[in-house]
Amino acid sequence: MPKAGICSPNPLTAPPRVLYYNKDAFKKAGLDPEQPPKTWQELADYTAKLRAAGMKCGYASGWQGWIQLENFSAWNGLPFASKNNGFDGTDAVLEFNKPEQVKHIALLEEMNKKGDFSYVGRKDESTEKFYNGDCAMTTAFLRFARQYPPVCQI
């Protein structure tokens, strides 16, 4: 947090990340298209069903460090770094190697080994795979919905 009386601009944006999912693929896999997964374990279970129903890719995510570590930590109330997540000093230490984050990455690794999670690139490549119908689910920025309005209903 900024100190009193000191201007502390943050040059980074914080667009919300959204889970996008293909309702038609959900129907084909016997999943309720109105009930997206609510936990990471549910997401893993859904991807297996989606792949069994013929999807090439159950789930893909771009910006893995940001979404799968930094955002995962924030969503779960876990620090990403010491010193108030780096706001209280340049000597902050990254703390994303804690049991919860390791367990999350291990789940993604397990999904990857089964073919249910696909690494398609470190940026926005997963949104293209979702748009093309190759991936049933992706985690991406909210702006994706504006870039691909024919497939995104919010």
TrEMBL record:
Entry keyword Magnesium: no
Keyword terms, alphabetized: Periplasm, Signal, Transport
Family annotation (Pfam families): SBP_bac_1
Protein origin, superkingdom: Bacteria
GO biological process, one term: transmembrane transport
Subcellular location(s) per record: Periplasm
Main location: periplasm
GO CC annotation: outer membrane-bounded periplasmic space
Family statement: Belongs to the bacterial solute-binding protein 1 family.
Subunit structure: The complex is composed of two ATP-binding proteins (UgpC), two transmembrane proteins (UgpA and UgpE) and a solute-binding protein (UgpB).
Name of the protein described by the UniProt record: sn-glycerol-3-phosphate-binding periplasmic protein UgpB
Organism, as annotated: Salmonella enterica subsp. salamae
